[in-house]
């Protein structure tokens, strides 16, 4: 069992209990997680090829034109797992620029669909490199809003080190679990603000034998998840 495989399962778990919603993904690990969830505990989950085709177990099951996605966003029947260049304690996300707005040091993607996603439906984040550069006290620009700005629901943040959530009284970020081989201290050191740390932090659930077989032989036989 590898760290990447643990992350795939952690991403899959983010969609548990959602019902028949559209799973939006950014990146291979979240995509594998959504497909794994659909094949195991969430058969009603809708998964796309990233364009206009709905897939089930790699086979076409429907057509979802781009205009229809906006209707699903507005109706709240979507749960997207986005990336983030910066995140703060309340889940405010930045994918637009780093540095002062007047003269940023790095120009990134722009806000894209982040405002509409975070105000209308459930949003989670995948961060492949957990570091103080990403987890910051204050984002340089708010692209996706957090819980202190009226977000619908920021559910999970999955990183290469841990799973985080916002199940606290003020809906600020909490350490939910640490991946096997990672310590709580390592997560704290890699985070640029004070996390809520429970008295006992469990390990992230490891893949079952069935899940490992699906990941390795069916979903990603070429091992792209490890690159």
TrEMBL record:
<dbReference type="InterPro" id="IPR037171">
    <property type="entry name" value="NagB/RpiA_transferase-like"/>
</dbReference>
<protein>
    <submittedName>
        <fullName>CoA-transferase</fullName>
    </submittedName>
</protein>
<dbReference type="InterPro" id="IPR004165">
    <property type="entry name" value="CoA_trans_fam_I"/>
</dbReference>
<feature type="region of interest" description="Disordered">
    <location>
        <begin position="200"/>
        <end position="227"/>
    </location>
</feature>
<feature type="compositionally biased region" description="Basic and acidic residues">
    <location>
        <begin position="202"/>
        <end position="227"/>
    </location>
</feature>
<dbReference type="Pfam" id="PF01144">
    <property type="entry name" value="CoA_trans"/>
</dbReference>
<comment type="similarity">
    <text>Belongs to the 3-oxoacid CoA-transferase subunit B family.</text>
</comment>
